[in-house]
Task: inverse folding
């Protein structure tokens, strides 16, 4: 896709329409039996209800991919409370996304859009609790990869009836329903658009919600994951974004004392003077050059399997407590030279995130 001609980038962030604040019990989107069970041609060995297709082959079969979806999710009317709001289940209902959940308020999964800032309990699953894979499928369909955070969808088979700008408007109007869009690119005369969401979770939801749906012209869309943006500037930006996100996620789940201790240790390592509140005096972390940033990430941190539910392993916690203690006793004496922090960030394995070039 190197020869893509980009139409002007849509710069403002597009907010999706907010669902009503006081949620009512979710409505049943379909009455059981209402949706015709179109017989899917068997192309694999077993029928996978999650994908609504036969499993065993690596490509989405041509038939199921070209039949228009009979149902579509209407966020405003379909969003509501389900059993998941009581049980604490954090994943969305796949059938809600496709507009065909017959359970409504009795559903065990959420009938709301995934919240962008909401970190799911297990990053190896998508927002529907399906396992991601190490690699993308050849056709970039399916659940996607846990090795790369992908926020961009490829939208194919668009029927263009106007200019690039008009098509862009249509694409935005349909795709903003599922989450806040960061940018949209339309490849005019090629029936293709790329939609990048602010959140990966919105992308996952939109991919299911828009699969085999139509825009304004009764087409049947082909929605896939986009391959990686080859633009080096985008790569650097993406790397930085992921690191910022990781740091925020870690800090939000950590004891503030430990965050302070980490800041202090980092400052000691770098010989930066702290002000009274232990904030790094002038050169804040934000302005660090990119290559210095993964400081807290260990070489080989990826080798440590993340423990579900805990970001810091016991050793790291002990280490941090120990250093906070020492610091209390010795004031800010810079006697700590050893790097003890590495494992602290291993839970998110940020080290290699932005660089999967193969
Ligand atoms: Zn449901």
Result:
């Amino acid at each position: 896709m190197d020869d893509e001609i980009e139409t002007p980038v849509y710069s403002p962030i597009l907010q999706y329409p907010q669902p009503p604040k006081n949620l009512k019990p979710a409505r049943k989107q379909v009455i059981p039996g209402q949706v015709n069970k179109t017989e899917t041609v068997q192309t694999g060995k077993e029928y996978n209800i999650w994908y609504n297709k036969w499993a065993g082959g690596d490509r989405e079969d041509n038939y199921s991919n070209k039949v228009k979806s009979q149902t579509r999710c209407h966020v405003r009317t379909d969003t509501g409370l389900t059993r998941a709001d009581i049980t604490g289940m954090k994943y969305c209902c796949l059938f809600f996304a496709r507009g065909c959940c017959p359970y409504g308020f009795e559903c065990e999964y959420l009938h709301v859009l995934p919240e962008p800032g909401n970190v799911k309990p297990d990053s190896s699953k998508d927002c529907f609790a399906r396992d991601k894979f190490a690699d993308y499928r050849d056709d970039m369909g399916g659940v996607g990869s846990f090795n790369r955070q992908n926020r961009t969808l490829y939208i194919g088979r668009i029927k263009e009836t106007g200019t690039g700008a008009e098509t862009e408007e249509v694409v935005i109007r349909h795709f903003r329903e599922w989450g806040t869009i960061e940018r949209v690119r339309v490849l005019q005369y090629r029936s293709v658009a790329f939609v990048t969401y602010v959140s990966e979770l919105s992308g996952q939801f939109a991919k299911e919600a828009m699969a085999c749906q139509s825009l304004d012209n009764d087409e049947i869309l082909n929605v896939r994951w986009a391959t990686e943006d080859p633009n080096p500037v985008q790569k650097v930006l993406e790397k930085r974004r992921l690191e910022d996100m990781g740091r925020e996620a870690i800090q939000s789940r950590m004891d503030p004392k430990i965050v302070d201790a980490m800041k202090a240790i980092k400052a000691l390592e770098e010989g930066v003077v702290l002000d009274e509140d232990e904030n790094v005096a002038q050169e804040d972390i934000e302005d660090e050059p990119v290559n210095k940033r993964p400081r807290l990430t260990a070489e080989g941190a990826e080798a440590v399997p993340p423990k579900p539910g805990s970001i810091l392993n016991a050793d790291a916690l002990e280490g941090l407590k120990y250093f906070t203690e020492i610091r209390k006793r010795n004031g800010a004496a810079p006697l700590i030279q050893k790097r003890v922090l590495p494992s602290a960030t291993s839970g998110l394995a940020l080290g290699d995130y932005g660089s999967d070039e193969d």
Observations:
- Residues 93, 95-96, 101, 103, 107, 109, 111 surround zinc ion (CB under 6 Å).
- The mean pLDDT is 73.
